[in-house]
Task: inverse folding
C-alpha cells in the first residue's frame, strides 16, 4: 500500500464507546469520545490515571482486548475499525506504546526491515535503508549495536521509548499516537525523544496525538490543541494555555465535576 | 580444595560460576550464601537427591550389554516417564531386523564411498572399537546392539582432513517394520571430518551410534530426523572425546511420530572441547524427546549444550532432559547447558529438565538455563501494529528463535536445507 506524502489527511474519532471484559464483567472505559486531527497538528490528551487515555490509544491501533461498542474511527473517510491491526499500520497509523513488548528471536535489523517492507508494500533499497537506519539511530543516541539485539529484549525503559520513536521516524506514518512516551524518561532522554517527534512532525507533516499525564513533555513538543480527558470523555478542550492551567491547578476541578456528574 | 581464598565450602565463587538445577529464566550464578546448598545437594553424599530411578547419581545408572538388566519399562521409571511407551512397543521388543510380511529389509542404507583416507567396513560384536564407546543405557539401546550382527564402521585415518561430509543415508521403506542399526564412527588422531546421518521415510527404527574421537581430532556428527509422520525412532549416540579434540553433535528432529534420542559424551583425555546442539519442531501428534548427558570424567575439558525447540498444534509434545555430571576427578571443568522452547499454540507441552551434579568445587564454571516461552498475543500485537501481517509475524519469531542453533551447524548446505524445512513447518503454522 503506497502512500503519497504531503497531502492533507484527517483522522476522525466520532462518539467512540469502548469497553473491556474484566473478571467483574464488562466495563465501559470510553463513553463517547470525539476528536478530529489533521495532518501537521499536534493534539495533547491529558488526564488523570484511569481516565481512558491509553484505551483510546490501544483502540486506534486495534488491540483485541478493547471492544468498540459504538462510534467510528475514520482515516480520510476510511473505516479504521474494519481494518486488521497490520492494515491500520499500513494505512499510516502508528502507536508508540507505553510498554513496548520484548519480542524473542527477532533482531531489530530484521524487524525494522520487515515492518518497513510491510508498510511501504515493497522492500526498501538495502544500501540507502541501512544508512537511513544508522543515521536515525545516531540522532536518537541509540547505540549502533542495538541493531543486532532482539527487539526490546533487555532494553531499559528509556531505550525502549527511543526505539519507538526510531520506528516513528523510519516508518513515516500519517498519524502517530504517543501513549505516555514521556513516562520513565530522564530529562536528557525526554529531550532526545521529543526532538525525534518534532523531526517526524516537520519532515512528514505528521499529525500527532500526544497522550500524557504530565505537562513536562509539552515544554519540548508544542501542542496546537489540548484535550482534558476525564472518566472516558473529553471534559474540556482548548489551546496550549489549558496545559498551563493544568500545570498550576492539577486535575482536581475536573475530577470534582466528574464525581458530581457520576 | 585448598589454594584460593575465593572459596566457600570448597566451591569457588566470585567471577567463576556454579549453578544448580532449577527452572529459572537464565540459569543462576550462585552467591556465596547459596553455594553451600549446591554443594550439599550435589556433593559426594550417596543420600543426595536422586536424579534417576533408584540409583542416585546419574553416573550410577545401569549400563550394560545384557538384556536382562533392562526390563520392559512400565512408564514409572525416571528415564521413561515422559515417553509414550505404547508407540515404542515395536522398538523395545527384542526383535531382529525384518519384516514379517515381505521378509525384506525395512531400512535402506547408503554410505559415502571411495574417499581417500576413509575406511568403510563392518564390525562384529567384540571387534574394537565397536562396544568400546557406546554403553547401552536403556532397553532400546541394548536391543539394537545385540540384534545387529555387522555394525557399519566408518574410519577417518590419522591426519586426514575431509572437506566434504561423509554421509550415511538411512531410509525407512516400511512403516511399522523393525530396523536395528549400529553405526561406529571413528576419527583417528588429528583427523577432521563431518558425519551426516540422515533419516527419512518410515520404519520402527532403533539406531545406535558410537563415535570415537581421537587425540586432536575434529569431529562433527549431524543427525537429521526427517522422517515421515508415522516413523518411530529411538537411539543412543555415545561419543568418547580424546585429548585436545573437538567434538560437535547436532540433532535435528523435525519428522516422525516419536523420536527419542539419548545423546551422550565423555572424555578420554584433557583439553577437549565438546558441544551438543539440538533443534526440534513438533507438530500435533509428534513426541520429540532428547536426553543429553555430559560426563565430565576427566580434568580440564569444556562442554556446551544448546537445544532449542518450537511446538505447534494441540498435541505437540517435546521433552529435553539435560544431565551434566562433573565427577570428582574433573577439576578445571567448564560446562554450560541451555534449553529453550517456544510454544506457538495452546495445548502443546514442552518439558525441560536440566540436572547438574557437581562432585568437585575446583571447576572453572558450571551453568545451566532453561526457559519455555509462549509466542503470545502481545508479541503478535506489537509486530502487527508495525504493519507486519500475522503469518509473517509468527514466521519471523520462530525463524529468529531457531536460527541460533542452525548457525552453529557449520555446514552451509545443511544450514540452507534446514531453512527450507523451517519454511515448510511454518507454512503449516500460517494456515
Result:
Amino acid at each position: 500500500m503506497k502512500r503519497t506524502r504531503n497531502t492533507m489527511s484527517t483522522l476522525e474519532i466520532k462518539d467512540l464507546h469502548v469497553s473491556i471484559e474484566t473478571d467483574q464483567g464488562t466495563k465501559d472505559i470510553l463513553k463517547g469520545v470525539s476528536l478530529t486531527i489533521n495532518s501537521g497538528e499536534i493534539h495533547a490528551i491529558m488526564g488523570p490515571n484511569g481516565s481512558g487515555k491509553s484505551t483510546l490509544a490501544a483502540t486506534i491501533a486495534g488491540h483485541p482486548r478493547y471492544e468498540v461498542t459504538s462510534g467510528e474511527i475514520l482515516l480520510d473517510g476510511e473505516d479504521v475499525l474494519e481494518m486488521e491491526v497490520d492494515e491500520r499500520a499500513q494505512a499510516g497509523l502508528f502507536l508508540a506504546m507505553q510498554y513496548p513488548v520484548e519480542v524473542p528471536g527477532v533482531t531489530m535489523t530484521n524487524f525494522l526491515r520487515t515492518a518497513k517492507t510491510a508498510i511501504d508494500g515493497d522492500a526498501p533499497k538495502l544500501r540507502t535503508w541501512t544508512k537511513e537506519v544508522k543515521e536515525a539511530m545516531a540522532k536518537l543516541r541509540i547505540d549502533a549495536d542495538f541493531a543486532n539485539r532482539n527487539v526490546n529484549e533487555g532494553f531499559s525503559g528509556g531505550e525502549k521509548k527511543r526505539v519507538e520513536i526510531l520506528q516513528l521516524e523510519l516508518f513515516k506514518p500519517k498519524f502517530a499516537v504517543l501513549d505516555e512516551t514521556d513516562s520513565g524518561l530522564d530529562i536528557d532522554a525526554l529531550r532526545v525523544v521529543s526532538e525525534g517527534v518534532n523531526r517526524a512532525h516537520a519532515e512528514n507533516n505528521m499529525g500527532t496525538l500526544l497522550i500524557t499525564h504530565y505537562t513536562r513533555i509539552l515544554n519540548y513538543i508544542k501542542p496546537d490543541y489540548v484535550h482534558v480527558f476525564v472518566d472516558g470523555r473529553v471534559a474540556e478542550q482548548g489551546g496550549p494555555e489549558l496545559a498551563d492551567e493544568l500545570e498550576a491547578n492539577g486535575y482536581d476541578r475536573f475530577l470534582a465535576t466528574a464525581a458530581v456528574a457520576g | 580444595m585448598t589454594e584460593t581464598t575465593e572459596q566457600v565450602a570448597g566451591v569457588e565463587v566470585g567471577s567463576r560460576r556454579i549453578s544448580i538445577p532449577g527452572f529459572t529464566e537464565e540459569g543462576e550464578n550462585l552467591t556465596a550464601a547459596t553455594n553451600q546448598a549446591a554443594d550439599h545437594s550435589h556433593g559426594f553424599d550417596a543420600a543426595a537427591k536422586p536424579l534417576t530411578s533408584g540409583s542416585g547419581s546419574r553416573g550410577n545408572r545401569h549400563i550394560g550389554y545384557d538384556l536382562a538388566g533392562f526390563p520392559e519399562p512400565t512408564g514409572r521409571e525416571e528415564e521413561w516417564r515422559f515417553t509414550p511407551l505404547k508407540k515404542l512397543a515395536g522398538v523395545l521388543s527384542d526383535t531382529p531386523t525384518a519384516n514379517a510380511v515381505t521378509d525384506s529389509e525395512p531400512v535402506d542404507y547408503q554410505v559415502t564411498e571411495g574417499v581417500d583416507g576413509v575406511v568403510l567396513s563392518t564390525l562384529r560384536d567384540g571387534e574394537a572399537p565397536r562396544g568400546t564407546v557406546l554403553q547401552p543405557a536403556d532397553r532400546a539401546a541394548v536391543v539394537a546392539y545385540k540384534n545387529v550382527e555387522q555394525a557399519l564402521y566408518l574410519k577417518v585415518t590419522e591426519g586426514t582432513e575431509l572437506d566434504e561430509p561423509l554421509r550415511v543415508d538411512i531410509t525407512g521403506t516400511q512403516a511399522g517394520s523393525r530396523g536395528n542399526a549400529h553405526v561406529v564412527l571413528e576419527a583417528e588422531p588429528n583427523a577432521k571430518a563431518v558425519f551426516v546421518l540422515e533419516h527419512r521415510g518410515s520404519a520402527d527404527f532403533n539406531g545406535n551410534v558410537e563415535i570415537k574421537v581421537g587425540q586432536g581430532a575434529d569431529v562433527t556428527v549431524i543427525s537429521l530426523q526427517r522422517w515421515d509422520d508415522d516413523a518411530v525412532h529411538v537411539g543412543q549416540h555415545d561419543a568418547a572425546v580424546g585429548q585436545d579434540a573437538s567434538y560437535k553433535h547436532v540433532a535435528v528432529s523435525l519428522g516422525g511420530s516419536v523420536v527419542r534420542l539419548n545423546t551422550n559424551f565423555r572424555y578420554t583425555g584433557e583439553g577437549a572441547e565438546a558441544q551438543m546442539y539440538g533443534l526440534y519442531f513438533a507438530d500435533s501428534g509428534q513426541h520429540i524427546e532428547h536426553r543429553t548427558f555430559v560426563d565430565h570424567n576427566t580434568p580440564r575439558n569444556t562442554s556446551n549444550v544448546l537445544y532449542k525447540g518450537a511446538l505447534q498444534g494441540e498435541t505437540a509434545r517435546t521433552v529435553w532432559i539435560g544431565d551434566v555430571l562433573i565427577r570428582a576427578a574433573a577439576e578445571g571443568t567448564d560446562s554450560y547447558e541451555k534449553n529453550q522452547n517456544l510454544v506457538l499454540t495452546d495445548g502443546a507441552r514442552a518439558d525441560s529438565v536440566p540436572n547438574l551434579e557437581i562432585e568437585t568445587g575446583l571447576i572453572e564454571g558450571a551453568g545451566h538455563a532453561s526457559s519455555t516461552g509462549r509466542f503470545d498475543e502481545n508479541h503478535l500485537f506489537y509486530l502487527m501494529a508495525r504493519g507486519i501481517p500475522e503469518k509473517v509475524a509468527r514466521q519471523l519469531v520462530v525463524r529468529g528463535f531457531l536460527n541460533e542453533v542452525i548457525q552453529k551447524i557449520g555446514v552451509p548446505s545443511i544450514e540452507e536445507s534446514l531453512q527450507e524445512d523451517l519454511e515448510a513447518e511454518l507454512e503449516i503454522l500460517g494456515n
